[in-house]
């Protein structure tokens, strides 16, 4: 018999509202506490410090960001502005009648587990209301990873007479007009901040300790995350997505050149057809370019320079697309190429009027803008949580058990947090009902250790700085196995359009509604059929051939060719 628990959800951002929705859908009694006066978390725009900046546009596409059973792609552009995304979240709350379960302007001050395993949650009504204590059976922590700003320690900081600020306080570039500004770091917000400040500042320099893996927002006219297809991520990562450990990757690619030779032979006729089709549809543009001498336009020259900078930063980053967090906007690259911003190494020290870089050069600065990320902050909990990677599946603390779940406390290198939070919420909701359970303590400890070792290996360059980083596609598949909703080939047989887009289109969360006890197959199939495919049919055909050869070589015992992802053929959930 299913249980119905009294559950507290902390935070009403994208993670908190989907946790509230999934818990209510599983017939639990839910109270969601939100400190701000509106839902949305960081996407609840505020004039004061915190939240998004005025020009913020999400860096994950609409398809990659929306929840699996509530999409709003029709007639929409590829990316949400922060206003549009906040409206989407508001519509989601209204559609699933969540508002009556959300307590706004309510700060969670303290959470402690009682001897009987239940949770005592102390809250305070803002701004000057009374404190209140309530008892809950379970708690979902949904405060996210953008909680506590990280500002580096600088040698000579006490001497610097200028201003040191964090990008969490940034709203627009006006305060930096005619200033001399150093920007440190270039994550997702940093790419916009550099561009906007360099447009108005007297001078601007960008300081990077290492490079950055940069994606333009649009690749061949499509959002960059449209390249994150199940087919592409099904192939072993050493084929294209990683460069570390370098000697191993070189060895594997050398072996692959030999073992994939049959693929190149099989694809030769299709390559000829593809070339002929391309020439016919472009008026023999490629053929004419071989004989025509044409000077490059100014725009073509600029695009080459932009690509050169992107390549340089990628090399300096020390990893491939699957080994780090990607900067999914190239706006700041334009500032560098246009001469509005100068690229500099990491900062060695500060002096009275500016900064000294690692290469010994100096720069007089009024302001240092730190786009240096955030830390999780669970100070309201009466326990030491450690890092996200110290939790079982980044969700459950091994010493606490299944009544406390951290939802959305991860960040994918490619992909989006909200679909991850949704999948975690579906898992937690089923655990609360008793439909699912966690493994034994020994198994949890073993899995945490294995995952930690994997994290240090895969994200070797950033494992200390970004302990909450996960591989999006494999993490989602692992969660779906727990929930019992991992897609199965039989769900798509007889629907060739959906099957093709499922494999070759953007990695959409709607695929996880195809099967399972809370499936919505009609909605899922409709969404999958509407997905756009950014790669050409020829490119996908080549990858598909590589994938099946990898499955074959793995089957005969060459373990390094084992596919990174594979479809489920049975229910692997942790059901009782």
CATH fold topology of the domain at 6-147 and 376-486: FAD/NAD(P)-binding domain
In total, how many beta strands? 24
Strand content: 15-25%
**H/I helix tally:** 16
The end-to-end span amounts to 12 Å
Large-scale geometry: globular
| Regions with little confidence, pLDDT below 50 for 5+ residues | 571-575
Helix content range of the residues, please? 25-40%
Describe the 3D structure.
- Among the domains are: 6-147 and 376-486, FAD/NAD(P)-binding domain (3-Layer(bba) Sandwich), CATH 3.50.50.60; 148-215 and 329-374, FAD/NAD(P)-binding domain (3-Layer(bba) Sandwich), CATH 3.50.50.60.
- 35% of the residues lie in helices and 15% in strands.
- The protein has 16 helices and 24 strands.
- β17 and β18 form a beta hairpin.
- α7 packs antiparallel against α16 (537-555) and α14 crosses α15 (521-529).
- The radius of gyration is 25 Å and the shape is globular.
List key phrases describing it.
FAD/NAD(P)-binding domain, 576 residues, 5-stranded parallel beta sheet, flavoprotein, Monooxygenase, alpha/beta, N,N-dimethylaniline monooxygenase activity, single chain, disordered C terminus
């Amino acid at each position: 018999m299913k249980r119905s628990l009294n559950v507290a959800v902390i935070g009403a951002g994208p993670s908190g509202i989907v946790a509230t929705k999934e818990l209510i859908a599983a017939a639990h009694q839910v109270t969601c506490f939100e400190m701000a006066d509106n839902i949305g978390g960081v996407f609840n725009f505020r004039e004061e410090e915190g939240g998004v900046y005025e020009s913020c546009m999400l860096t994950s596409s609409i398809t990659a960001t929306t929840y699996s059973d509530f999409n709003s792609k029709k007639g929409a552009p590829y990316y949400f502005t922060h206003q549009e995304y906040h409206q989407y979240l508001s519509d989601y709350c209204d559609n699933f009648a969540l508002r009556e379960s959300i307590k706004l302007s309510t700060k969670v001050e303290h959470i402690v587990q009682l001897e009987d395993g239940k949770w005592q949650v102390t809250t305070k009504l803002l701004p000057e209301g009374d404190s209140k204590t309530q008892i809950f059976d379970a708690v979902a922590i949904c405060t996210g990873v953008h909680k506590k700003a990280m500002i580096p320690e600088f040698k000579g900081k006490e001497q610097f007479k200028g201003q040191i600020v964090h990008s969490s306080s940034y709203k627009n570039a006006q305060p930096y007009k005619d200033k001399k500004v150093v920007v440190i770091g270039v994550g997702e917000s940093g790419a916009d901040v550099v561009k906007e400040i360099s447009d108005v500042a007297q001078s601007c320099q960008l300081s990077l300790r290492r490079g950055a893996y940069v994606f333009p927002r649009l690749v061949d006219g499509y959002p960059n995350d449209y390249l994150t297809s199940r087919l592409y991520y099904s192939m072993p990562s050493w084929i294209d997505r990683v460069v570390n450990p370098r000697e191993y990757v070189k060895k594997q690619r050398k072996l692959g050149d030999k073992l994939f030779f049959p693929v190149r032979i099989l694809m030769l006729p299709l390559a000829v057809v593809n070339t002929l089709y391309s020439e016919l549809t472009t008026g023999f543009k490629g053929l004419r370019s071989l004989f025509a001498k044409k000077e490059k336009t100014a725009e073509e020259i600029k695009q080459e320079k932009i690509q050169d900078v992107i390549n340089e930063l990628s090399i300096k980053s020390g990893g491939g697309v699957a080994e780090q967090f990607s900067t999914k906007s190239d706006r700041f690259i334009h500032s560098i190429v246009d001469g509005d911003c100068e690229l500099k190494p990491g900062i060695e020290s500060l002096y009275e009027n500016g900064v000294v870089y690692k290469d010994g050069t100096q720069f007089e600065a009024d302001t240092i803008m730190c786009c240096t990320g955030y830390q999780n902050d669970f100070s309201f909990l009466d326990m030491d949580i450690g890092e996200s990677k110290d939790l079982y599946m980044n969700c459950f603390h091994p010493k606490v058990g299944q009544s406390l779940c951290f939802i959305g406390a991860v960040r994918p290198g490619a992909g989006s947090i909200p679909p991850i939070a949704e999948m975690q919420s579906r898992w937690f909701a089923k655990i609360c009902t008793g439909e699912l359970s966690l493994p034994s303590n020994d198994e949890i400890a073993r899995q945490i250790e294995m995952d930690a070792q994997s994290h240090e290996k895969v994200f070797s360059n950033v494992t200390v700085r970004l302990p909450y980083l996960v591989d999006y596609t494999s993490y989602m598949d692992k969660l779906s196995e727990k929930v019992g909703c991992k897609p199965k080939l039989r769900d798509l047989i007889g629907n060739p359009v959906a099957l093709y887009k499922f494999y070759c289109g953007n990695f959409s969360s709607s695929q996880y509604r195809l099967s399972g006890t809370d499936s919505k197959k009609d909605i899922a199939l409709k969404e999958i059929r509407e997905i756009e495919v950014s790669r050409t049919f020829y490119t996908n055909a080549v990858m598909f051939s590589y994938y099946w050869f990898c499955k074959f070589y793995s089957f005969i015992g060459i373990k390094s060719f084992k596919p990174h992802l594979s479809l489920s053929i049975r229910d692997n959930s942790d059901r009782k």
